[in-house]
Amino acid sequence: MKEPGRVERLDEAALSGLESVLRSACGMVLAPSVRRSLSTALTRAAESQGLPTADFLQRLLARDTAAVEAFLGYAVIGETYFFRHPEQLRELTRAAAVHPGPFVVWSAGCASGEEPYSIVMSLLVAGLTPELIRVVATDVSGRALEKARRGVYSPWSVRRMEMGLEKRFLCVESERVTVPPEVRARVEFRRHNLVTDPPPLSGAHAIFCRNVLIYFPPEVIPGVVARLVDALAPGGWLFVAPAELPFVRGLGLEESSVDGHPVLRKPRAELPPVHAPVPGPIRFVSRPQSPLRRAPSPARGVPAARPEGVPPSNPAPSPPVEANTLSVLDVLQRARIAASLGQVEQAEALARRAARELSPDAYLLLAIMAESRGDVAGAVGAVRKALYLEPQLAIGHAMLVALYGKLGQPEEAERARRNALRALEGLDDETMLRGVEAMTVGGLRRALEPAVKQGRPGAR
Q1: Residue 125 has pLDDT above 70, yes or no
Q2: Could you tell me the residue ranges of all domains in the chain?
């Protein structure tokens, strides 16, 4: 016998009405497989409100606010798990590791919270201290946000997580997995509607909006993506699911590949033109020379190329370059020019611009400038960032030999010396090395090998 107020099966008119509620509430258009689950969602939402299903349906179709919010919590399906799309999290880690200062991420459509917690863990792996991490996680479902704030999951949620990360960051019991308070504290959960609400933040360094756009009708997606892009800082990353890439192409984002997977980035703000003379070698007034730079090199003593007829003491200015034509190499060259003229502040500002494009050479230049003002620890940090980006950068390892020597860390200096020699293995002596100053493979080998025999400090 049918219970009073019970709905056995939703007819087409009721299903269309429920879809209309979802579309007006959060812009969603459901796939057929999801549409079939609306009957179950309706029943569970009615039970949560202590109402017969038929009565709840009437309130829902009448757009009763409480009924709509309850229904959203059961109808919006957000299946997710920890460390989904790991290649995107690896790119986030790489960008964050070389970013100065606080790092801000928006997890849009965060569902039950596995994504924002994975983001926090990735940033901690990148070496960021907790106080530098800010993750804002939003969802249209209040029920999903309640679960996310609790941070308690089943073992199924960690099915793709590396064992080392699981042991480091999660409290795992037989039937449940708990996110510890120190990770939960870095995430701020907010109720937010991507279709109707303005972004909850601005200047985000990365935004994750994965497996969300597929639920929106085509005419809604451009507006949603435009708001996401507006919330990004210049150079910030937008991570969407691979299936959603066609929705965001052609909207002004730069596309590149990470581990064979496309990723999207907001173009950086244009650099102002810098009018500077033709470059010469970098020199710093009162800069102490490191043992590495006292070593002979075949490249030493070769004067920098200058235009014919221009005396070295009075270099001619180069023609202005439009800001939007500058590449990372252009910016680095200008940084070197400014450094050679003693314009250290301008050189450092330009080098930091290039470093934000993840240029290892920019970090080596920053290291030289830090060392020149006596900040040896800062120089080590800059070199380590360069080596994070390019682990086989021989000049970087060689610079650490002298820097660790100055810090009185002979074991670290020796380790750096061995790493530098390993990076040179198999290279011809006449090959020019990458770096902020010209040096050949053979020149660097000679700078490193005698240090062992002579017992120079920091290069034993």
Answers
A1: yes
A2: 12-75, 86-265, 271-283+323-357, 359-460
